[in-house]
Amino acid sequence: MSKDFYTASELAALGYVPERLTSVFGEPDSVDGEFRWDTDTVDAVERDVLAPAARIMFDAFAPEWNTRVQMTGSNLALGWPQMEQMLARVTLRES
Rounded distance, CA 3 to CA 86, Å? Predict the structure, then answer.
């Protein structure tokens, strides 16, 4: 059984900043006061926008591992670990 939607709390648990979900994924549906984003929309944004951008960033900073350590240690709202997890989800969906 596949998932039809993501809630704001589910996307936040994946590392997305709750205050920026609309700017990333567009206007949500509201069901019983809960904001929901269609799974196809979230998957498409990750696959077509975020994953390619993250791959470019990884290539740009690959020689400078110190940058990765600093991003991880800074506990950034959207840092390196969250990008790695998002890329893993996209890769898993593509396989």
Answer: 17
The pLDDT tens digits of the residues spanning 51-62 come to: 988 888 777 766
Nearest 5°: the CA angle 94, 18, 72 is 70
- Residues found in the chain: 95
Question: Which residues lie across from 31 on neighbouring strands?
Answer: 34
- In terms of phi and psi (left: phi > 0; alpha: psi -120 to 50; beta: otherwise), the region of 16 is beta
